[in-house]
Amino acid sequence: MNQIVEMQTYIAVVEAGSITNAAKRLGITKSVVSQRIQQLEQRLSAALIHRGRSMLLTEAGQEFYQQSSKILAELSELEESISARHDHIGGSFRLSVPQAFNIQYLAPYLAEFMQLYPELKLDIESSDQFVNLNNGHYDAAIRMGELADSNLISQTVAQNHHYICASPDYLKEYGMPTHPNELLRHRGLLYLSREPHGMWQLPVGGKKAFFRISPYLRTDSGHQLLAAAKRGLGIAILPSFLAAEAICQKQLKVILSEFSPSGGNISVVYRLSNRASPKIQALVDFLSTKIGHPAPWDSQIQNMLRQES
To answer: Mind telling me which InterPro entries this protein's record contains (predicted)?
Structure first.
């Protein structure tokens, strides 16, 4: 068995949290994953994983995970370095992308990108959870929002505007808030990773202030927020790419527009060692051109707001 394949399989099991999830990530059967882990443990003469209801690593397993991640990251950096010298866009390209944006727009964009570069083989994982880019499993990630300080490089593709929205039926029944101070009297549709406790951070007079809204729905799904808002269940903060169609069809109305929160940017993020990667730069250039400035969904919303004013 190829030692690199064994390392990749083991890392996938550790990061996915189970053999079942690792098999899905790798695109192979559970039996193949189990067999590779067993062969690896036999070759090392050491148990790496405690077998039980939950997966726990042994001391040897933790050490092997850390060292294997480092080795694979260095191997990936070597490949990128050689490829960059020859300005060749091909080979494998491992991407992590946000689920909601992928469903709405990114999937067809990436399919077109692959057509432009037929020697490029994409491995795409769709999740709204941030992945660890330092372990070498991913070449880059497309991320949305304000990015925390880190040792990663980011390139902005487009702005990620957000709007406070509610349906006409909701506003008819509960009234139109004219200031964030009034949000406490309203039903809040909350995005878990941003506002789990019903506190919205909104700009007031050039500064950020916190305002409480009564939690009615909490979810980690942007599409769930959108569906609930369109049904008149409450007020939600939605990204423009997700809300544009509903706003233009007058299923949702933008409210408190002067207090719209910052959504940061749509960015391509990657390790410093990949800064010369031609395939990453090709992706940044392609998405920047494809989305444009402003993005088409932002233009649609702005046109709608001008018509209403």
So the answer is: LysR-type_TF_proteobact-type (IPR058163), LysR_HTH_N (IPR000847), LysR_subst-bd (IPR005119), WH-like_DNA-bd_sf (IPR036388), WH_DNA-bd_sf (IPR036390)
Contact 47, 61 (CB under 8 A): yes
Q: Which of 28-42, 78-92, 125-139, 239-253 has the lowest mean pLDDT?
A: 78-92
CATH for 3-83, options being 3.40.190.10, 3.90.550.10, 1.10.10.10, 1.10.10.350: 1.10.10.10
Q: What is the pLDDT of residues 209-253, one digit of tens each?
A: 999 999 999 998 999 999 999 999 999 999 999 999 999 999 999
In angstroms, the CA 227 to CA 219 distance is 12
DSSP code of residue 178: S
Local structure of residue 260 (DSSP, 8 states): P
160-263: CATH superfamily:
Periplasmic binding protein-like II (3.40.190.10)
Beta bridge partners of 94: 123
The C-alpha atoms of residue 2 and residue 7 are separated, in whole angstroms, by 9
**Cα separation, 131 vs 16, whole angstroms:** 11
The DSSP output letter for 128 is S
Report pLDDT digits (tens) over 106-115: 999 999 999 9
Cα–Cα dist 295/307, whole Å: 19
